[in-house]
Amino acid sequence: MSVPQQISETFQKAMNLSGSPNAVSTSPTQSYMSQYVSATQKPTKALKPFSTGDIKILLLENVNQTAISIFQNQGYQVEFYKSSLGEEELIEKIKEVHAIGIRSKTKLTEKILQHARNLVVIGCFCIGTNQVDLEYAAKSGISVFNSPFSNSRSVAELVIAEIITLARQLGDRSIEMHTGTWNKVSAKCWEIRGKTLGIIGYGHIGSQLSVLAEAMGMNVIYYDVQMIMALGNSKQVDTLDDLLQRADFVTLHVPETSDTKNLLSSPQFAAMKDGAYVINASRGTVVDIAALVQAMKSGKIAGAALDVYPQEPAKNGEGYFSNELNDWASELCSLRNVILSPHIGGSTEEAQSAIGVEVATSLTKYINEGNSTAAVNFPEVQLRALDLDQQNSVRVLYIHQNVPGVLKTVNNILSNHNIEKQFSDSRDDVAYLMADISDVDITDIKSLYEQLEQTPYKIATRLLY
Ligand SMILES: NC(=O)C1=CN([C@@H]2O[C@H](COP(=O)(O)OP(=O)(O)OC[C@H]3O[C@@H](n4cnc5c(N)ncnc54)[C@H](O)[C@@H]3O)[C@@H](O)[C@H]2O)C=CC1
Ligand SMILES: O=C(O)C(=O)COP(=O)(O)O
């Protein structure tokens, strides 16, 4: 049975309606909403506005147990995987689910999202959202949420550890001791007190790092494309070059964008102080690793710590640095005073459990109430809770292209009922209207839904009741 038919039949059964299975539209964006309507029973006060047991959530990349518990408490169906999935498997899985939770590895491209016929919301259980085609998602009516700062402290602490580790060549001494070599040296080993830390990207992580570094006696300068208030005694510099020329340690905390690709490459390494150190816990595309290897081989750069790489594997295991994957890998691994970690900047118990709660809560509010506050790609819309004491109330969630005249059409449809409250906002090409209407007879809901579905410029409709 094709999915649209299945939905249509369930719809009719739930609504006690008869008619052709084709009565409900068959396009992907329409069908997922039909499924919501089909699952809906008129709620009593104690019930959610639709049957939460029908909601399917796919969780990848070992998303924290706190999130699983929140979803299970809602009654959602949760499918959980420790690793990411390959493209083909992901395409199969994403067809059915209403929500997907990922971390930094899973790429949700247009190609994959095209198959997501029921998908309402994406949760990035991390800070970065570069792995998702945000624009395509928004235009398809799919809202995306992340956790903007729950792992910032973990990253900042790791970077502090790396600054000291590099300054004291601690990684090398440890490797030597593991093979029984006693190599007690002080040459080119330094205190960090009085040294200058150059932070590129003074956002949540960069600014937190700034405070920690100053507490240990470092001088902090930072470069950011935005003017940002300096914390403590730190100072913003006007140009990247200015920072590179003055810093003993350069650390990157920028997002992955076209502007940050190879932000540090040969010319930037050449501009740095002799014997400076480089730390990258942002994204692998931000540092040109081949150029870094050359700068280290020449002695210009005295040490580097890398937590992120241009390509990262979908799951844990051996053989990552195979030469087929990266032509710089063997040289990088043979260099002295290089710390390599497997993208663990945000991987602490504290961060992961906080992220689990934060993102799962955002997803639940969006699924159950339509609340898109803090979405990263979507208009932010919220209304106070649907008043279930109010007889025959329905919450209308209507996502549409941001063009003139749509609200007039929609409000014309809604005007047969009492509009209790309403809010609408737009972001780029997409707009989102939320309205609570009352005096809706249960038998009118199908017609209301169909009228909204037939409006021009509609992207997706959901009715919660
Ligand atoms: N290694 C890991 O496990 C983790 C890595 N990250 C990465 O760290 C990045 C930064 O995180 P947050 O500090 O939370 O982000 P944020 O958004 O709070 O701050 C980023 C800062 O970079 C600035 N920026 C953007 N483009 C720039 C450019 N071309 N030059 C200079 N500054 C630029 C922005 O203006 C902003 O102030 C994330 O986007 C993510 O990719 C985040 C968490 C964990
Ligand atoms: O939060 C981020 O952006 C990170 O890079 C951390 O990613 P992860 O959750 O470890 O896949």
UniProtKB/TrEMBL annotation:
UniProt catalytic activity: (R)-2-hydroxyglutarate + NAD(+) = 2-oxoglutarate + NADH + H(+); (2R)-3-phosphoglycerate + NAD(+) = 3-phosphooxypyruvate + NADH + H(+)
Keyword Methyltransferase: no
Top-level EC class: oxidoreductase
Gene3D superfamilies noted in UniProt: 3.30.70.260, NAD(P)-binding Rossmann-like Domain (3.40.50.720)
EC number, as in UniProt: 1.1.1.399, 1.1.1.95
Claim: Lyase is one of the keywords in the record: no
Any one of the GO BP annotations: L-serine biosynthetic process
Pathway(s) annotated for this protein in UniProt: Amino-acid biosynthesis; L-serine biosynthesis; L-serine from 3-phospho-D-glycerate: step 1/3
Family membership noted in the UniProt record: Belongs to the D-isomer specific 2-hydroxyacid dehydrogenase family.
Protein name per the record: 2-oxoglutarate reductase
Organism phylogeny: Eukaryota, Fungi, Dikarya, Ascomycota, Saccharomycotina
